[in-house]
Specification:
The longest helix is centred in the N-terminal third of the chain and has 24 residues. The chain has 13 helices and 10 strands. Strands 1, 2, 3, 4, 5, 6, 7, 8, 9 and 10 form a 10-stranded mixed sheet that branches. Helix 1 runs parallel beside helix 11, helix 4 packs across helix 13 and helix 7 crosses helix 13. The protein is of the alpha/beta class. It has 2 domains: 165 residues, 3-Layer(aba) Sandwich (D-Maltodextrin-Binding Protein, domain 2), CATH 3.40.190.150; 117 residues, Periplasmic binding protein-like II (D-Maltodextrin-Binding Protein, domain 2), CATH 3.40.190.10. The N and C termini lie far apart (63 Å).
Length: 323
C-alpha cells in the first residue's frame, strides 16, 4: 500500500510539474479569440483591445476571429468544439447567460462545456430615440408608446443580446407595447435608429454616447443605478419614470472545458493586470466602461448567478428567441 501511495504521489507530482511547465511556456503559438458577434460592437472593440495587450505581455499573437450568427450561438459552438489547449478562447457577454434560458435548444451548455477565465468590464446602456420622435423626455416617450400600442419599434442586435433583454425589461416595467426589430449585428441596429427606420434602441453607452453628443440620436435615460459619468446630464431610466429599472452589458473570457487550470490561471492573472493598469482604467472610464476583476472561481459563481437573474427576466418579460 505504501508503495502504491508513493507511486501515486510521484505520478501526481510529475503531472503537476508538466502542467506548470506547460503554463510557463504558454503560449508557444498564436491564440485565437472567437468573438461570436459582428465587428464594430463593444465585444469586438474590447476583444481587440485585450488581444493587443495580451500579445504585448505574452509575446505571441492573439487573433480575433469574428463568428457572428444565431444570437451568438454559432461562434460559441465553434469555441465549445475547439481543442481545450488554451489556444482557443471565447469572448462572451451576458448574451450567453441570457441564452441559457431564452434558447433552450442550444448545441452547448455554458457551465458544462466551458471553464471561466476572467471578466473584462461592464458598462451602462442608454435608451435613445431618433430625433424625429416627438418625445423630449422618457416620460413623454412612455406616454407616446402607451397612446399608440404596437406602433413604435425598437432595434437590437438580435434575440438574447443585452440590448434585446434591456428592451424587453423596459417594456415590462414601463407597461408599454413596443415591437422588437432584431438585426444581425449591433452596428446595423445602431444605423437603423440613426436613420429613423426604427424609433428607439437601448445600446451600450460606450458606442452610443458619441452619437448622442453629435445629435444623431436623443438620449432619454441610462440604465445604471447612478448616472453615467460620460452622460451625466442624462437621467437614469429609474429616476426618469421607471423606478427600479437597471441593466448593463458586461464582457468576459471563457475557454473550452478541459483547458489546463494552470493556463486558465495565467490568462486570468494577465487579464487582471491589464484591467488594473491606470491608463487602461482611464481610457475605459472615458468610454463609460468599468473594469471587472475576479478569480476564475469567482467568475464562475458570477456566471451561475447571472444565469438565474436573466432566467427570471425572461419569464417576467415573456421574451421569445424569435421575437
Amino acid at each position: 500500500m505504501r508503495h502504491l501511495l508513493a507511486r501515486g504521489a510521484a505520478a501526481l507530482a510529475l503531472a503537476l510539474a508538466a502542467a506548470l511547465a506547460f503554463a510557463q511556456d504558454y503560449p508557444a503559438r498564436p491564440v485565437k479569440i472567437v468573438v461570436p458577434f459582428a465587428a464594430g460592437g463593444p465585444a469586438d472593440v474590447y476583444a481587440r483591445f485585450l488581444a493587443q495587450r495580451l500579445q504585448e505581455s505574452l509575446g505571441q499573437p492573439f487573433v480575433v476571429d469574428n463568428r457572428p450568427g444565431g444570437g451568438a450561438i454559432l461562434g460559441t459552438e465553434i469555441a465549445a468544439k475547439s481543442p481545450p489547449d488554451g489556444y482557443t478562447l471565447l469572448l462572451m457577454s451576458n448574451t450567453h447567460t441570457v441564452n441559457e434560458s431564452l434558447i433552450p435548444n442550444r448545441p452547448y451548455q455554458l457551465m458544462r462545456d466551458f471553464v471561466p477565465v476572467a471578466p473584462i468590464n461592464y458598462s451602462d446602456l442608454v435608451l435613445v430615440v431618433n430625433p424625429d420622435v416627438k418625445a423630449a423626455t422618457l416620460g413623454e416617450f412612455i406616454a407616446l408608446a402607451k397612446a399608440s400600442p404596437g406602433k413604435l419599434n425598437y432595434a437590437s442586435s438580435g434575440p438574447g443580446t443585452p440590448y434585446h433583454m434591456a428592451g424587453e425589461l423596459f417594456k415590462s416595467m414601463a407597461g408599454v407595447d413596443i415591437v422588437h426589430v432584431p438585426y444581425k449585428e449591433s452596428s446595423a441596429a445602431r444605423t437603423a435608429v440613426i436613420a429613423g427606420q426604427v424609433e428607439m434602441m437601448i445600446d451600450a453607452v460606450t458606442t452610443m454616447s458619441p452619437q448622442a453628443a453629435a445629435g444623431k440620436v436623443r438620449a432619454l435615460g441610462t440604465t445604471g443605478k447612478a448616472r453615467s459619468a460620460v452622460m451625466a446630464s442624462t437621467p437614469t431610466i429609474a429616476e426618469a419614470g421607471v423606478p427600479g429599472y437597471e441593466a448593463t452589458i458586461w464582457l468576459g473570457v471563457i475557454a473550452p472545458k478541459g483547458t489546463p487550470p494552470a493556463v486558465v490561471a495565467r490568462l486570468n492573472a494577465e487579464i487582471a493586470k491589464i484591467a488594473a493598469r491606470p491608463d487602461v482604467k482611464a481610457d475605459w472610464a472615458k468610454q463609460g466602461a468599468v473594469a471587472m476583476t475576479m478569480s476564475p472561481d469567482e467568475f464562475g459563481k458570477f456566471l451561475a448567478e447571472d444565469i438565474v437573474k436573466w432566467e427570471k427576466v425572461v419569464k417576467l418579460s415573456g421574451a421569445k428567441p424569435d421575437q
